Please model this.
Amino acid sequence: MNIKVLGSGCANCKTLESRTLEAAGRLGIDAPVEKVTDFGDIASYGVMSTPALVIDEQVILSGRVPTVDELETMLSAAN
Amino acid sequence: MTSQTVTLRRPTWRLWTGAAGAVVAWIFAYRINGPLWNWFVTDILGLDLESRTGSAAEFFLYDTVKILLLLGGIIFVVTVLRSFMSVERTRALLGGRREGVGNVAAAGLGVITPFCSCSAVPGFIGFVAAGVPLGITMSFLIASPMVNEIAIVLLYGLFGWRIAALYVGAGLLVAIIAGWVIGRLHLERWVESFVFETTLRGQPVDLAGTLSWNDRFTIGREEVRTIIRKIWPYLLVGIGIGAAVHGWVPEDFFVRYAGPENPLSVPIAVGLGVPLYSNAAGILPLVEALNAKGLATGTVLAFMMSVVALSLPEMVLLRRVLKPRLLAVFVGVVAFGILCVGLLFNVIL
Model:
């Protein structure tokens, strides 16, 4: 599984990254969370509000930070 | 009724009962706020409400609770309503609009679209690369932070609904006109060229339609928690200093220095507002106290607009997509608009 967090390093992006790692840990998914900070790259995913979560090149979520429980559901659905 | 529909309906039923309970509790707390602190200050602390310490203590306690209640309630309602909108939908609505009408639509949509100014850059690229004209994109980017619920709540709570409504109207006007002017100047050559070269692959994500009421309420609660957690220290300090000003600074102190007939007070207020981003919650209670001592109301409105619409961090972000000249034009046009608003209201109010 390929997990990416899109965002330019704002507080919300860091929260999303750490919550994603926590949710992945709970599910026993051993995948690194890659950070995409370049604005051109972020825009090329069609994302207009950060932070965004991309799993296997599919944009799952953008513009808000979900709870760890929600992330767990999203990750297990994508797995 | 089958067992399946029962299990489906029960959480919804609970959700709305919870919401109704929260509304009743909120109204009760808001109503009791004034009498409660009145009683607390006079009967428990034994202070005279006419005395300096008594009035300052009452002002601090009453205003803190009132603003926290207003912030909590309004941020929640606004966030839930906004969860039906999305930046993607806004972009689709703005695509192919002509200038003028487009600027008005963009400013209005800037208010109701959920959009954080930390997303100004991807938002800008997403709009411009999809063909939304530069000036219309600018109207959106100016209105979105300027006419925001925190500023409106603070203005309503501290100055009343008339000033809050004036602020909203003036803010929309500045966004519409500034965006229109930037569009008329045809400054596309001063946008960083990679913006136009960005190809938007994949489907644009629009998750607004897929959420349940439960999701929307959760998003609303999270937003209230995040914002209150971020601003409460500033709010307490601001109201504390405001309370001290109310109690100890002589009446009409500012009339001499920053009253309506001093036109210099507006540009100074606009300049001071630029580095003070995100501390609006702390600054406005203080400004309200200064207003009560004679600081002109137009100056106050201009200051508030400058704090939220011309923030240093946002300019640093926008520099990634705007060449320095366009950034300067952007700041100049918006600052000039705010200046006009401040001077105009100082004359007519």
About this structure: The longest helix of chain B spans residues 3-44. Residues 112 and 134 of chain B are 20 Å apart (CA to CA).
